[in-house]
From TrEMBL:
Organism of this sequence: Caecibacteroides pullorum
InterPro entries tied to this protein: Cell_wall_metabolism_enzyme, Dup_hybrid_motif, LysM, LysM_dom_sf, M23ase_b-sheet_dom
Residue ranges constituting the LysM domain according to the UniProt record: 226-270
Pfam families, A to Z: LysM, Peptidase_M23
Stored CDD domains: LysM (cd00118), M23_peptidase (cd12797)
One Gene Ontology molecular-function label: metalloendopeptidase activity
UniProt name for this protein: Peptidoglycan DD-metalloendopeptidase family protein
Annotated SUPFAM superfamilies: Duplicated hybrid motif, LysM domain
Domain of life: Bacteria
SMART domains: LysM (SM00257)
């Protein structure tokens, strides 16, 4: 029995380095596989899917409370600096505008803002974006380039920052040639002006910290929400108090006055 126990212990002792070596090999294989998948699908660790047909496909995504987005290695999508329309609610058209409209001319080169992979190349005809491109980037952002006259890339193509991806145009719901440029994180639109300074042709900072917007338990918007949908009986003072802002700021952001009649279902920008 003593001899058998001794033999078993010797066998286990000799096997241990082999097990460690096998685990090391398995770990290296796994790491290599993860790197391959990450190169195939940028931001693989946070995005739940790779859809090549639609912009808005992340309704079931797990949104982190906070996420730091690296903005270094950028390229401005166009050399033009004039902003035709800003991010936010459009009172005149009664709908939200989820990007910036930058004045470009038909045929101007539009470039990828960061390294990434082309997720969508589509044409909405006379609706919405017209001819557009969606790119997912390694830093977690997705950028959208709308109203193009021509797309120069294909789905699943890898691109570098600064690489031409389309030509400026006037397709879709557009009243003049311009680039509609959006920045999104897991489908959530972020004001591009918080990251890009088109006038200076530079980024605002090396990083941007995304913070999750939280809903109150009663379903109303939290103080940090960007927009608020008007309910029956709401007044500007009630909305301002609920959203943690002021009536004057609400009026300025939405280009209204204190005498403006609010309509149920109307969306107001709050910050």
């Amino acid at each position: 029995m003593v001899s058998l126990n001794s033999f078993s212990q010797d066998l286990i002792a000799r096997q241990a380095p082999i097990d460690r070596k096998l685990k090391s090999v398995d770990s290296l294989v796994l790491q290599k596989q993860i790197r391959v998948e990450q190169s195939m699908y940028p931001a693989f660790d946070i995005y739940p899917s790779w859809n090549t047909t639609s912009v808005h496909v992340y309704g079931d995504a797990i949104i982190p409370d906070k996420y730091t987005i690296d903005l270094t290695g950028f390229c401005m999508p166009t050399e033009h600096t004039r902003i035709n329309d800003i991010f936010g609610y459009r009172p005149r058209r009664r709908r939200a505008h989820y990007g910036l409209d930058i004045k470009v001319y038909i045929g101007d080169t539009i470039r990828a803002a960061f390294d990434g992979k082309i997720r969508v190349v589509a044409n909405q005809g006379r609706r919405g974006y017209g001819k557009y491109v969606v790119i997912r980037h390694d830093n977690g952002l997705e950028t959208i380039y709308g109203h193009l006259s021509k797309q120069l890339v294909g789905v699943d193509q890898l691109v570098k920052a600064g690489e031409p991806i389309g030509l400026g145009g006037n397709t879709g719901r557009s009243t003049g040639s311009h680039l509609h440029f959006e920045t999104r994180f897991l489908g959530i639109a972020i004001d591009p002006a918080l990251m890009f300074d088109f006038e200076k042709q530079d980024i605002v900072a090396d990083t941007y910290t995304f913070e999750k917007k939280v809903k109150n338990t009663n379903g109303s918007a939290s103080r940090s929400d960007l927009f608020y949908k008007v309910k029956r009986g709401d007044t500007l003072s009630k909305i301002a108090a609920r959203q943690g802002t002021t009536v004057s700021k609400l009026c300025r952001l939405n280009r209204i006055t204190t005498k403006t009649v609010l309509r149920p279902g109307q969306v107001l920008r709050c910050s």
